[in-house]
C-alpha cells in the first residue's frame, strides 16, 4: 500500500507530484506507477515508460 505522502516531493516551499497526471481526466487524477507503465484508474489510459 502506497501512502499519499509518497506521491509528493517537498523541496523547500515547493511541492511536486512524483507521478504524472492523466491527460484525459485532467488535473487532480494521478496515474499509478506499475513499474514499466503508468495507468489511470479512472479512465484506463496507459502510457509505457521510456527506458
Automatic annotation (TrEMBL):
Keywords: Metal-binding, Ribonucleoprotein, Ribosomal protein, Zinc, Zinc-finger. The keyword Ribosomal protein applies. It holds the Pfam family Ribosomal_S27. Its cofactor is Zn(2+). One of its GO terms (molecular function) is zinc ion binding. Belongs to the eukaryotic ribosomal protein eS31 family. This is Small ribosomal subunit protein eS31. The gene is rps27ae.
